[in-house]
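QUALITY CONTROL LOG
STEP: pairwise intake check
CHECKER ROLE: data steward
CRITERIA: each record must contain a sequence immediately followed by its structure tokens, with no blank fields

ENTRY 1 OF 2
RESULT FIELD BELOW
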Amino acid sequence: MKQAKVNLDGAALSLLHPLVSGATTLALRCREAHWNVKGPNFGPLHELFGDFYDFMNDWADTLAERVVQQGGAAWALDSYTGPGLIGDEKFLLENIAIAGNSLATIVHTTIPKLGDDETSKDVLIEFGRELEKWVWKIEAHLMEFKRLGEAKPETEVAEETIAGPVKGTGRFLTEGEIRAAAQTPTKDFSAIVTARSILVKSASGHIYAFDENVMPISKAKDPSEQDEAQRWLQENFNEVLGD
């Protein structure tokens, strides 16, 4: 699309410079997240951060070209501090979401200040709309991460310090109660409810964690037994939850 030239003055051009720098900075942060992500969600997050980097890199280029077309000079960064984004999956998602929301705010506050430069306004409106979609994707992954309660490995799931309340009783399970439930022999399966999950203990001593939709949230030592535990829980779901 050919962009019209409106001979922006220095003050108007100065409004676009922070967007070029902000877009470049966010692109680099996405690149760092793409490089440094580790954990059980590596595959989808590695791809997500890589795709967001490509999006931001393209828009940094578009915004810089717009500045030059209007008679200004573009530069990539005002400042950039290291060592960059290094942390767990939640840390990376949170920081990319914060940076994306911050840049989206700058975009929307800049648009009405551009006066008669309707072309630059249109460019920023499109950029802001697409940027908000990407931030929404990042935040959706973050919400899912939080929804699953950052599920602990199966070896740790029965060691909650505080693990209640038990639905239908109004009281909290203690760590001791969970340990006792995990160690007491039962026929087939038994279940206890924690704040994070429904724990099902098998007669063989394995513990499996399920969410409120009876979906597994911990790695199974015995997948076939987990399937049996899931079927048992679905059949006894209301009784387990105290409905």
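ENTRY 2 OF 2
RESULT FIELD BELOW
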Amino acid sequence: MPASDKLATETLADRAYNAISDAIVRGELPAGARISEAALASRFQIGRGPLREALRRLEGRRLVVVKPNAGARVVSLSARDVLELFEIREILEIKACQLATERMLESEIDELEKLLDTHDRDPDSGRATSRTAKAPDFHTAIIRGSKSNQLINLLCGELSDLLRVYRVKSSGEAGRTEAAFREHREIVQAMRDRDAERAAFLMGRHIRKARGNLLRLEGITSLILSDAGSDDNAKPGVRKKAPRAS
């Protein structure tokens, strides 16, 4: 294949990947839905070759599950899988926030505050619903601010799209987006004060609240942890013990 043709195919595959992953994140392709190549090719006006490449990448990112003789479906995680995903996210983002507080320049924190101003003016821009958004979402900005290649590769690469699905779902509760934006401001203030311990604590609490909201929205009340929003006065770095889910 000529280099120019290969580049064009990769570009079309990227476009298909971004469009399909955004559709999954927004719930337009719901969890467990069967994926029709013909329907997607028609919807996104793209050929089967780039589409199949995009689907292979989506499978690699765990947004799509392909089974022999059964075709492809949008991933549908169990309640336990969702809980574990948020537990991993909490551990990694707490560390990213701590490192970002220590490593970001004052000018970079200035840009982080400007990003929050943008989100206040346009709330949808802060909900991570699009891979091609002009401005990064808050969490991505902090992860990149950690300047840790391993954390960036995990949270902005391997786990990013799957996390995006459930981050957007968790913001669906009435008033949650506004509350989350206020929590973002608190985190940035702690970062501005170079209080890495408090910034990390606030990030962990923020993620636990998002997890609790998601579990409520999904009707998984048995897995809502007791610290999902009740640890306002807990010491940074100290987690309450939660009952084990059955």
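INTAKE CHECK: passed for both entries
DESCRIPTIVE NOTE, ENTRY 2: The chain has two domains: 3-74, 79-223.
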